[in-house]
Amino acid sequence: MKRNFLTNFLSFILGLVIVASFFIFKTSLQAQETQPTLPALQIHPLPTTLEKWQNTNEQGDYFSSLVSLPIGALIWTQFPINVYLERPIDSDTTTASYQQFQKWVNAVQTAIQEWNIYLPLEEVSQKEIANIIIKRDFPPLSSTINPDGKLEIPRARTAQTRYDLEITQNQPATLIHRMTISISPRLSELSILSAARHEMGHALGIWGHSPVETDALYFSQVRNTPTISVRDINTLQKIYQQPTRLGWTIPNS
Description:
The chain is an alpha/beta fold. The protein has helices spanning 48-51, 96-116, 189-203, 230-239, and strands at residues 9-17, 21-28, 81-85, 121-124, 132-136, 144-145, 151-152, 157-167, 175-183. Helix 2 (96-116) packs across helix 3.
């Protein structure tokens, strides 16, 4: 979908660092002649897959640890969710670079398949129609000024997720979002899988971290790579029951 006109948008960058994950908040403002009125916060019907989910073990969730956003919950309302995954462009499949790239692809695809159980995902070959774009790339570093006025360069990150807001071109105009995930190529296959699993959780709406190390969205890397937990899905289910401005039409559009 293309932007119909310039609109205010927020970009949040959520990265997985070498030792711990942390947030970088970035706000971008684009000038435009008229400012659109955003949709009111409203609740969408719960996706069928999450509606069927039952927390039989009553293990709780970490919803209270998540970040509250002005646009409400970062949820998807149209399914399946289209995912674009970068692939090798080298036609020679025998090269070391191709094989390394393919190992990265395989690990990321495994994470996508794991989350597909809980929300419908479909891999697409066209980036333009993707809701989630996954790039084999080094996450950019953003320096900051500390309270003492000194420049601080953050530690290298291995993965990050950001979102952008858009207004659809079709009528009536609708507020939507797109997620972009960057995962470093310099990781072991297990680390790629762990990073992809974690970042996909963010891309599906879990905008924050768990304080429990057995959850896939735990805030730091751990020795024993956690799989998607009951608490992760309990949290995801609760997120999709929250009000959002996403997926609703722009007033008077």
